[in-house]
Amino acid sequence: MLKFPALVSAVLIGGVISTVAHAETQTIDMVIKDHKFSPAEITIPANTSVILQVKNADHAVEEFDSHDLRREKIIAPGMTAKIKLDGLAPGVYSFMGEFHSSTAQGKVHVK
User: Fold this and answer.
1) Paired residues of 62 in beta bridges
2) For residue 104, which of 39, 42, 46, 43 has the smallest C-alpha distance?
3) pLDDT for 47-64, tens place per residue?
4) Burial class of residue 80, CB neighbours in 10 A (0-12, 13-18, 19+)
């Protein structure tokens, strides 16, 4: 008899935890234009999930590349890529556009 209320409670608690986890994922929009990232520097909280949503507004292919973040993503002209960052420790992480590295550079500050 007590199994049904326990099951309902477990489902409700799971829904709350799922909602909280989803609410903690922050999306940050970035644009590559004229072979530069905008914004070129962002600040995010430590130990959280963040999605970088990077739109390539140039007419050339670009690759989001970061050895610090251990991420690489080729982005075709006019396309948008999502790059997920999970639980970064405090610090500064550099990234660049592999194909236009002299101008396409940026940093993620984690505090």
Assistant:
1) 75
2) 39
3) 999 999 999 999 999 999
4) middle
pLDDT band for position 19 (cuts 50, 70, 90):
very low
Global confidence as pTM: 0.77
Look at residue 16 and give its three-state secondary structure: helix
Cis, peptide link before residue 77, omega less than 30° from 0: no
Is a pLDDT exceeding 90 seen at residue 83?
Answer: yes
Residue type, 21: A
Residue among 87, 102, 74, 2 at smallest CA distance from 45: 87
Which DSSP letter does residue 101 get?
T
In the chain, helix, strand, coil percent, each to 5?
A: 20, 50, 30
CA atoms within 13 A on the CB side of 69: 24
φ and ψ at residue 8, rounded to 5 degrees: -60, -45
